[in-house]
Design the sequence.
């Protein structure tokens, strides 16, 4: 069963069509024509097993004529041709809890196929598959997304709008924010089917313009004269690489 990301996040009640074999109403699942019954299997004499001798050994197997029942149908039911079951399609209402993920298995007790000879019906298991979201990445109940900001916004600080499952919310970008810096919106992730709610993690990506005007270039060159950076490799043990490892590791 396939769900959209939004359906999995909020939960949904939906209908599914299931084909299953059900007890034949004409013979009540016996496979015998109405008014007739069963007779003792002549192959096994009603024991349900047959024995074969091979040298000094005797091998016992399930009777191939009655399949171990010990009785056979004298006159088969015309509706099910002696099978005792008929293929039917049923429409079932399925309640999907909020926060499910791909691979989740839902159990509907008593909605499987009936047992042989009037036995109790089994259970129906539904396996869920959730489609990916356009920009949210899911890790358990937590959500991750990346939001672009301009160089001036990251440098001077600003307040931006970020998407959540319940609509847009303000996120404060402090002065001097670095590209790749992560901000946490507590309890704005997915609901956990076992209780609680995950968080939303917003990664900021500073966008560098591919082209600038002549005036923008002049201003950036002036700014560059006041902001010198020593262009040397960053050691792997620095906090920068530790953060990258934590985010993508």
Sequence:
């Amino acid at each position: 069963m396939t769900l959209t990301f939004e359906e999995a996040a909020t939960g949904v009640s939906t209908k599914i069509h299931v084909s299953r074999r059900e007890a034949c109403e004409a013979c009540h699942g016996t496979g015998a024509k109405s008014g007739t019954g069963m007779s003792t299997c002549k192959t096994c004499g009603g024991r349900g097993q047959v024995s074969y001798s091979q040298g000094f050994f005797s091998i016992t197997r399930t009777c191939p004529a009655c399949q171990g029942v010990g009785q056979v149908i004298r006159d088969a039911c015309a509706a099910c041709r002696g099978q005792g079951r008929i293929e039917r399609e049923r429409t079932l209402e399925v309640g999907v809890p909020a926060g499910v993920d791909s691979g989740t298995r839902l159990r509907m007790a008593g909605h499987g196929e009936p047992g042989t000879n009037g036995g109790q019906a089994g259970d129906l298991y539904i396996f869920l598959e959730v489609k990916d979201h356009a920009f949210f990445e899911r890790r358990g109940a937590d959500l991750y997304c990346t939001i672009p900001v301009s160089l001036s916004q990251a440098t001077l600080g600003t307040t931006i709008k970020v998407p959540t499952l319940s609509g847009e919310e303000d996120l404060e970008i402090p002065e001097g924010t670095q590209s790749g810096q992560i901000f946490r919106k507590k309890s704005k992730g997915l609901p956990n089917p076992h209780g609680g709610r995950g968080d939303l993690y917003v990664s900021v990506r500073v966008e560098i313009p591919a082209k600038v005007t002549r005036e923008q270039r002049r201003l950036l060159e002036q700014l560059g004269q006041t902001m010198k950076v020593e262009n040397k490799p960053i050691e792997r043990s620095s906090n920068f690489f530790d953060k990258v490892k934590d985010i993508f590791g």
User: Anything to note?
Assistant: The first strand starts at residue 2 and ends at 3. The chain has two domains: 2-37+74-130, 137-226. Residues 214-226 form the longest helix (13 residues).
